[in-house]
Amino acid sequence: MDAPIINYIPILIMFGLALAVATGMVLSSSLFGQHVPSRQKLMPYECGKDPVGSARERFSVKFYMIALLFILFDIEAIFFVPWAVVFRKLSQDYSKLFVFGEMLIFIAILLVGYIYVWRKGILDWNK
Amino acid sequence: MLTTDILIEWLVKIGVVFFILMTAIAYVVLLERRLLGFIQMRLGPNRVGPFGLLQPLADGLKFLFKEDIVPLEADKALYVLAPMIALVPALMTISVIPFGDKIVILGREIALHITSVNVGLLVVFALTSLGVYGIALAGWSSNSKYSLMGGLRSSAQLISYELALSLSVVGVIIFSGSLDLVEVVKQQNSFWLGFIPKWNIFTQPIGFLIFLIAAIAETNRVPFDLPEAETELVAGFHTEYSSMKFAMFFIAEYANMVTASSMATLLFLGGWYGPFVDKFPLLGPIYFSLKILFFLFLYIWLRGTLPRFRYDQLMRFGWKFLIPVALANVVLVAGLALLIY
């Protein structure tokens, strides 16, 4: 099915509208709201006590690991999409076993990486 | 060709759909508060207007006149930008979601979707995953420890469950052979054996469950509401936000719920199809809304019923259970498709 590029224009219009609404909301609260700032009010919330140190501290490396794994596996997940789109067409025109087998090989390669990560213990959150 | 007619049609459709979306979001909030009230043996807000129907308006006004606080030492530019980044993509997704077939108004054939692009499914996924930037930046820019922790947890949770989410729709794409959401729905039109609708939920129930679980996690709802776990993180990434900026995160969350519900409907429950919809195309949007309402009710029901996951349980469930099951589901559905077609 051909979809002309012109069909993307409404998404752009929608972006403009959503951006206008978002900007309007930010502006309206600073326009209509009251402003009586005080030092206590502007402190970061820490259960009523004075904040201890900065919030921009070091955090667990686990989050970094998860981000790395996400990039790897998400790219692999995206590779499924073009295969899935042509799956039925290709299995009718060409060979059923070929289309299916190709994906099994791909999943096998993906699983090698997955099992490696699992055995290394990156997926255990509290290790 | 871009003609004035098409442009006017787009603008009218965008206006109507946007208005309906905003109204729907406002009333889903009310519905949630009332239903939660009934689940907990109380009434919920019922004082403003009949049955509390004017409550969203009152809440909106109150948000508008509340003080807008920017904490000291916050990164001001990012602090203001974060709720906008959360809200804009959440509202944009509606532009590719079809809610009915073609109808004829004043002798003019009008398709019941704002626009249909051949990568509609990818557009929705791309836009919904942009929301994580809003949350991560909000957490970091507030310069509050609770916000930072909420933002970090939230980003890790969102990206973990996105894998299972994108793997669970692969089965649907195999059946439809297209990423166009209109095509995905049309493929579910006819019947198996003459009476079972060809909805994807019947051919791939595992995929549907994975999609549902991952979608609930993606929208930060109970039992996956770790980013704003009140008992440990005060309010998570939006602890320091007040007035309209807080409302924007709120609206974004509910818009994402509506998007997730409509995606579940389109991909697995046959979109706008139902009895007699071929003769009366106007029934399409009604069936579509009813199916969405079912999922929204499910969201609220879960919130009233389930306790929250612990963070390590959440990660273990996402990485060690959902992803392998989703991969197995891909193989299973592909095998099934080979048998059927």
Characteristics:
heterodimer; A: 127 residues; mainly alpha; 2 domains; flat; B: 341 residues; 4 strands
Structural domain tally of chain B: 1
Could you name the ranges of chain A where pLDDT drops below 50 across 5 or more consecutive residues?
A: none
**Quaternary organisation of the protein chains:** heterodimer
Overall, the morphology of chain A is flat
Order of helices and strands of chain A: HHHH
Q: Give the strand content of chain B.
A: under 5%
State mean pLDDT of chain A (0 to 100 scale). 82
Number of strands of chain B: 4
Overall tally of structural domains of chain A: 2
Percent of residues in helices of chain A comes to 55-70%
Mean pLDDT of chain B: 85
Largest sheet of chain A, in brief, is:
none
Sketch the major β-sheet of chain B.
Answer: 2 strands, antiparallel
What string, H for helix and E for strand, traces the elements of chain B in order?
Answer: HHHEEHHHHEEHHHHHH
Note the overall shape of chain B: globular
Given the helix and strand composition of chain B, which structural class is it?
mainly alpha
Q: Outline the low-pLDDT stretches of chain B.
A: none
Helix content of chain B: 55-70%
**Strand pairing plus helix content of chain A: what structural class?**
mainly alpha
Give the helix tally of chain A.
4
